[in-house]
Amino acid sequence: MNIRNVSKTQILLSGVLVLLTGCQTTQTNEPRELSNSEIAKASEFMPHVLKAKVINPGIKPNWLKSNPRQFWYEAQDANRRQTFYLVDTKKQTQVEIIDKSSFANKLGKARLDWQGFPIKQFTLDNSVATFELDNEQYKCGFDSYLTNCTRETSQQVEWPDYLSPDKRHYVKVQGFNLFLCQAEDDACQQLTKDGTELQPYAVTHPYPETKLNDENFDEQKNLELYWSGNSRFAVTYRLNREGVNKMHLTDSVADPKFSVKTVDYYYPQAGDKTLPSAELVLIDVIKQSATLVDIPAIMQTYYGGPLWGYWHKNHYYYHDRRRGNKEYYLRKLDPVKAEVKTIIKETDHQFIDPWVQTFRLLNDNKHVIWTSQRTGYQHLYLYDVESGKLVNAITSGDYTVRVIRGVDEKNGVVYFEASGKESERDPYLRHLYRVGLDGKGLRLLTPEAMEHDTSVSPDFSVVIDTFSDFKTPHKTVVRDAESGEILMKVADANATGLLQIGWRPPEAFSVLAQDGKTRLYGLMYKPSNFDDSKRYAVINDTYTGPHNFFTPKSFVTYNNQRPALAELGFIVIKMDGRGTNKRGKAFHRHSFKNLAGGTDDHVWAIKQLAKTHLYLDLNRVGIFGFSAGGYDTVQAMLRHPDFFKVGVSASGNHDFRVDKAGWNEIWMGWPETKEWQQQSNYTNVHRLKGKLLLGHGELDSNVHPAATLRLVDKLIDANKDFDLLIMPRMGHVLDDHPYWVQKRWRYFLKHL
Question: H or E segment at 660?
């Protein structure tokens, strides 16, 4: 044999072997059906299953009024049995409240299923515990354990609704008018006579499902009304819904005789000429009167009532925002004079975010803490209530105040959680700080680089801190409220059950956005049998709603649909791009009049990840989402048709004009501009290339099914292929329905 010929043969054979080896490591995109074994395996990773495998994922402290250094909490013991503990933070001790070995006998029961969590509505204070067991009420004394338990046999007094604190009067609505009644004998005095169905007093906008499911439903029994602490006054409103848009829902399967049920309801849509409005009404018990207060009418933009406020020192304080969301007010009602005074006016040329705007009145009755993003980040400001003048900024800097946890007025200290202040950390992680009301003496109390959820004791001596991150189970400790020093350990979560079934925490990642300077953060979920030598299709779980952020920061990364989907052999990506909330005004307002651009950062991030994570197959990228994420899904398929090959959209608000005014007008502005049309999913359906599954519940009162059906109409006109599922009797939360979940699994397996 010629040596040169042998060499050529060897070379050819080597080439064939290389090709064969390549075939073994590259997955073909062949459609496959969902097998029973795959269903079983993925079902093991469903959120309700994973959640049940974690013992004590954080605790809720319930502080005793009789002792501000003590609290009780409900938990599970090592055997997953219901347990109640009492913690004394001064003595640094905790004891189990119930002796399980003898408690059933004390109550005259044969046994109690402690793993079934039999005790409900538990309370403890002043050495007395009350609870519900088997639909019966019990009362026990407490020393070291619960003792001397008795069943409460006395008849409970049936108090009327909307009762005054002194239990002497109540308010009702009849014929859409207000009546003031005496609790003792139900004698009533009619306060108004001009109420109508279009201009009713005190009624709230009900969810239409309530009207459908309750033949005896009466909206006049669902009121919004707030009593003053001295029981003399009550605040409510007269609603004006003349000219307000009405929607209709149809229940196609409720009637066994093959007829359908329909319901109509008020639903103020974005861009509507007329929204519901409310005039403030003051009820005076002494004068037996109901007075319309002379103020600008308050917007009502969704279900429920329009009042955002509370009584403080016998004055009523409330938020008031103008349509367009560029003006926001804190107002004070003087009930004696029946006059309203504006304390603070906040303005912005784009919008003021009502989802984070809040206030805290101080007990000195002279000051109020107000939140504002005027400097670019959410911060706390101290105002004089009487003059409305700014006293001083309490916090400042390039970080976001998330929530006030307590105000120690005696020592002039505010406790608050904030994110983004600690450098070289995930900017979403919450930490607890203390600072003087004068803005001095800022101190970090929770230094660990984790997500902290805190509760400050009523006497401001200690802090209960539950902290974790995406890979570290929750730990709960008691800290000194001044120094942050850990004084005692309370409880640790046990996640052994998760690890035993093969669950592993997702992989955290960060990449730079397309602007080259803004860092983005997310999680990558992998199957339990992940093999980095293989290539995996990528699925983006999207929700770019600007009212919040959506990537978990605590250990509870498993309480969603992503682990189950990953278990089917996908890499699932969850992240927050520019335009979402809690990272400052500049980051947030990337979405202003730009909701369609929410997924652009997601595309960029996945491409960047693929450069270093070679197992990500960019030829097989899918996307799914629910509600605003349903909008995102379709918009992403149209905006990036060559990138996203498969999309599954549930309950999507596909055009801002078919959705509620209270949400869309904040982020898109008002009045309607050209961006509304440009960013509608109806506008660019001709760009669809990939496989698209649309789903909607027939009884969705949050986003009307018309939002999806209008999209279907446009897709038909464009001669586009797609799949559609309308689920009877289903409301808005389609995303977690078992049938829809498996439908989504099958769709990705078949087409991706």
Answer: none
Q: What is the mean pLDDT of residues 504-526?
A: 96
- In tens, the pLDDT along 312-368 reads 999 999 999 999 999 999 999 999 999 999 999 999 999 999 989 999 999 999 999
Nearest to 749 by CA among 5, 17, 33, 16: 33
Distance CA 649, CA 638 (A): 13
Q: Is 524 exposed, middle or buried (0-12, 13-18, 19+ CB in 10 A)?
A: buried
What is the secondary structure of 56-104 as a DSSP string? -SS---EE-SS-TTEEEEEEE-TTS-EEEEEEETTTTEEEES--HHHHH
pTM: 0.93
Return the DSSP state at 155.
Answer: P
Apex 149 CA angle, 148 and 152, nearest 5: 135
Environment class of residue 298 by beta-carbon count within 10 Å: exposed (0-12), middle (13-18) or buried (19+)? Answer: buried
**Distance (Å, rounded) from C-alpha 663 to C-alpha 511?**
29
Q: How confident is the model at residue 13 (pLDDT cuts 50, 70, 90)?
A: very low
**Six-digit token pair at 533?**
């030598």
User: In this predicted model, what pLDDT tens digit does every residue of 423-460 receive, in sequence order?
Assistant: 999 999 999 999 999 999 999 999 999 999 999 999 99
Burial of 650 (0-12, 13-18, 19+ CB in 10 A): buried
- Residue 325's H or E segment, with its range, is none
In the listed set 469, 494, 519, which residue is the last one of a domain according to the structure? Answer: 494
3-state secondary structure of 461: coil
Which residues, 6 or more positions from 200, have their beta carbon under 8 angstroms from its beta carbon? 173, 176, 219, 220, 238, 239
Q: Which residue has the tokens 């040329």?
A: 349
| Sign for the pseudo-dihedral over CA of 153, 154, 160, 163 | negative
| pLDDT value for 572 | 98
Largest separation between any pair of C-alpha atoms in the chain:
119
Specify whether the CB–CB gap between 651 and 677 falls below 8 A: no
Q: How far is CA 386 from the centre of its chain?
A: 35
Asked if 634 and 706 sit in the same domain, the reply is yes
User: Is 189 found in the same domain as 47?
Assistant: no
Residue 240 sits in the same domain as residue 118:
no
SS3 586: helix
What's the DSSP call for residue 445? S
Is 360 within 8 Å of 373 (Cβ atoms)?
Answer: no
Token readout for 144 is 């070291």
How is residue 324 written in tokens?
Answer: 């367009």
| 257 lies in the same domain as 298 | yes
Rounded to an integer, what distance in angstroms lies between the CA atom of residue 172 and that of residue 219? Answer: 11
Residues 574 and 506 grouped into a single domain = yes
**What are the residues whose beta carbons fall under 8 Å from the beta carbon of 73, sequence distance 6 or more?**
59, 60, 61, 62, 84, 85, 87, 490, 491
Q: Supply angle C-alpha 164, 167, 168, rounded to 5.
A: 90
SS3 (DSSP) at 254: coil
Query: Domain check: are 187 and 115 in the same one?
Result: no
Span 65-121, pLDDT tens digits = 999 999 999 999 888 999 999 999 999 999 999 999 889 988 988 899 999 999 999
